[in-house]
Design brief:
single chain; mainly alpha
């Protein structure tokens, strides 16, 4: 047996690099990111090899949703102030983040039905249906449903957080208020409605958006805002579709661990749109 000798060209030379070998009083990379906590959070409930994949995929998804909520909350405040330039940047970042969420399903889909069944019973009734962050995203985008609070009753903080989000204006509500302030005809009962109720599409709102598109040259920021909203809605629909197909691939048509019908429940959500008039007017243009 011979030992391979490495040529200098096969490695990165560090002699001329000012590497901080001694960190002194500075925090390290691991300390800054709290990697000891992050990497200790994967605790499989079974001895099955593939459960680690299941945990990591869902934890990564929650981290991306954490960033989306951070950006969305700030964007909503910018819209309230009619400060659209930073809002447009934040919404664009959310769209990029959504593509990462969508790609996560490609990783999970490497799991076979046999591999998932080996540890599924260990999950009990836990399910992504109970994701607080996902529900907050839906509420902030405008898909309000008071029934969804019930599954969070055992967590008082989560329940109160969702209650506040349910009763508060969504991103779309604030965008419609902005259109009204800019002179577009939004019905008054849409500006001061019960925000905990599901949004219903309006012909007058559709007409206002047509006006935005027809006046793009003089109101480019509103035109860009409209397209950013379409991006978000489009990506959310893609995420739902990939979710459905991944579930179908792994568990077929069995019920989900959270008690829903699984694929049949996910299929109902495919037609949901956060900003319905922005889709309706495309036929009219």
């Amino acid at each position: 047996m011979t030992t391979r000798r490495y040529d200098k060209s096969e490695r990165v030379e560090l002699a001329d690099e000012a590497v901080h070998w001694d960190l002194g009083s500075s925090v390290s990379y691991g300390e800054y990111l709290q990697l000891d906590k992050l990497l200790a959070a994967q605790k499989p409930l079974s001895s099955e090899h593939n459960e680690m994949l299941f945990i990591v995929v869902h934890q990564v998804s929650e981290l991306w949703m954490r960033l989306m909520l951070h950006e969305l909350t700030a964007a909503l405040e910018c819209v309230r102030r009619d400060d659209l330039d930073p809002a447009l940047k934040m919404l664009a970042r959310i769209s990029r983040t959504q593509t990462q969420l969508i790609s996560v399903w490609d990783v999970l889909s490497t799991m076979t039905p046999f591999e998932y069944t080996a540890f599924r019973n260990a999950l009990g009734r836990s399910s992504g249906f109970q994701s607080l962050q996902y529900r907050l995203l839906e509420f902030l985008f405008g898909n309000k449903n008071a029934e969804m609070l019930a599954v969070h009753q055992r967590d008082a903080h989560a329940y109160e957080t969702l209650q506040r989000a349910l009763a508060s204006p969504s991103l779309y509500d604030e965008v419609l208020r902005l259109l009204s302030r800019r002179g577009y005809g939004i019905p008054q009962d849409y500006l001061s409605r019960d925000f905990s109720e599901p949004y219903r599409a309006s012909k007058q709102v559709a007409g206002a958006w047509l006006g935005v598109y027809h006046n793009a040259e003089t109101g480019w920021d509103l035109y860009e805002l409209a397209e950013r909203l379409v991006d978000l809605d489009h990506n959310f629909q893609l995420w739902r579709c990939h979710h459905l197909k991944t579930v179908e691939r792994i568990i077929g048509y069995k019920p989900g661990t959270g008690g829903t019908g699984g694929v049949s429940y996910l299929a109902k959500a495919l037609e949901l749109k956060f900003f319905p008039e922005l889709w309706q007017i495309r036929t009219s243009m």
